[in-house]
């Protein structure tokens, strides 16, 4: 039986040799496994772009006897290259036993597995990794609820380095106090059974997914009122169910307008983008009324995700960290958007005259700012 091990590019030749020679197989099983993704579900394992899955298959000539088919396919939509690897005859009574055999054939007695992303689809799977350590960068669980006790058990198989990201649905606040979660660099939360309350979460970087723009800004204001410390961050992807061109333009305008209003009301200023975020389209800095030695940098960024085209990011930092821009043309940019909407709606007959006057005003403002400074 040929299975997937360390290097997908050399899979065919290498696995054939390894599967035929026990000595090679034993040595190969002692080498750490390096993966991009390891996803474990009820009936299969996904290793990078390949999925190994189990299916019950009725044995010919036996009405009540079943075997379990082991298959493999590439994870594309639609799935391609699907083929049967083996019929696991002795395990027709118990799917879990077949799954344990599949785990052993794929992972064996390796002491360490390195993966960028580790995803569990059921709580009992982590119990199969006896004597194995998994050094993951990201842990994601969306289809069930980890309990605090589950995370205690999971900590026994995780490597020594803290996670870069822990991602889950917000079903319980208790698990967010577990060391696995608290020590992660970023906590990603999606909508769940619990309502989001930033006052109940103490984490260096909270990131929300699946929230509307209005709710996201409300939660950000509540987070600011909660008094976050220097270095703490709050961000969120803006969920956009309607992805047509004009809807996305309207979202961008609405967010920039709210940011511009906050900048003006707080006595803030437009600043250069954070170097970590090259896709920034607008960034402002606002002083904190309760701590004059700190500031809040708020940035709007474009996303490449299909679920969200924009992301908002907040960071608490020492005053003067953000580099100010010479001028803020957002007021005129918003006016241009208004006239673009008017032209699209066909509500005026003097499009070109208004556009000319508006452009001259913008040019004049820019020239004055460049000559005389901010």
TrEMBL record:
<protein>
    <submittedName>
        <fullName>Uncharacterized protein</fullName>
    </submittedName>
</protein>
<feature type="transmembrane region" description="Helical">
    <location>
        <begin position="350"/>
        <end position="372"/>
    </location>
</feature>
<keyword id="KW-0812">Transmembrane</keyword>
<dbReference type="InterPro" id="IPR021942">
    <property type="entry name" value="DUF3557"/>
</dbReference>
<dbReference type="Pfam" id="PF12078">
    <property type="entry name" value="DUF3557"/>
</dbReference>
<keyword id="KW-0472">Membrane</keyword>
<keyword id="KW-1133">Transmembrane helix</keyword>
């Amino acid at each position: 039986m040929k299975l997937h091990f360390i290097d997908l590019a050399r899979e065919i030749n290498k696995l054939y040799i390894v599967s035929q020679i026990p000595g090679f197989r034993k040595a190969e099983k002692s080498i750490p496994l390096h993966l991009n993704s390891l996803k474990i579900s009820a009936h299969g394992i996904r290793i990078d772009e390949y999925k190994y899955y189990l299916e019950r298959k009725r044995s010919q000539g036996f009405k009540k006897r079943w075997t379990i088919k082991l298959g493999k396919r590439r994870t594309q939509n639609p799935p391609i290259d699907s083929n049967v690897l083996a019929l696991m005859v002795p395990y027709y009574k118990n799917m879990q036993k077949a799954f344990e055999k599949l785990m052993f054939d794929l992972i064996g007695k390796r002491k360490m597995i390195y993966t960028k992303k580790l995803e569990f689809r059921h709580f009992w799977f982590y119990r199969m990794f006896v004597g194995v350590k998994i050094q993951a960068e990201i842990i994601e669980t969306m289809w069930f609820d980890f309990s605090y006790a589950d995370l205690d058990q999971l900590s026994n198989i995780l490597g020594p380095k803290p996670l870069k990201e822990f991602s889950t649905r917000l079903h319980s606040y208790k698990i967010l106090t577990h060391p696995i979660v608290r020590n992660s660099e970023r906590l990603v939360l999606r909508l769940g059974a619990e309502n989001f309350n930033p006052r109940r979460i103490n984490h260096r970087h909270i990131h929300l997914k699946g929230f509307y723009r209005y709710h996201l800004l409300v939660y950000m204001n509540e987070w600011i009122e909660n008094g976050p410390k220097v270095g703490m961050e709050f961000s969120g992807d803006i969920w956009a169910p309607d992805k047509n061109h004009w809807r996305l333009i309207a979202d961008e305008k609405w967010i920039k307008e709210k940011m511009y209003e906050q900048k003006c009301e707080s006595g803030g200023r437009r600043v250069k983008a954070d170097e970590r975020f090259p896709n920034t389209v607008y960034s402002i800095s606002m002083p904190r009324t309760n701590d004059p030695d700190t500031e809040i940098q708020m940035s709007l960024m474009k996303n490449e995700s299909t679920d969200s085209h924009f992301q908002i990011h907040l960071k608490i930092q020492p005053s003067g960290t953000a580099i100010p821009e010479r001028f803020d043309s957002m007021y005129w940019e918003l006016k241009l958007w208004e006239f673009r909407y008017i032209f699209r709606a066909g509500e005026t007959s003097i499009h070109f005259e208004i556009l000319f006057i508006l452009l001259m005003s913008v040019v004049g403002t820019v020239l004055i700012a460049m000559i005389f400074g901010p």
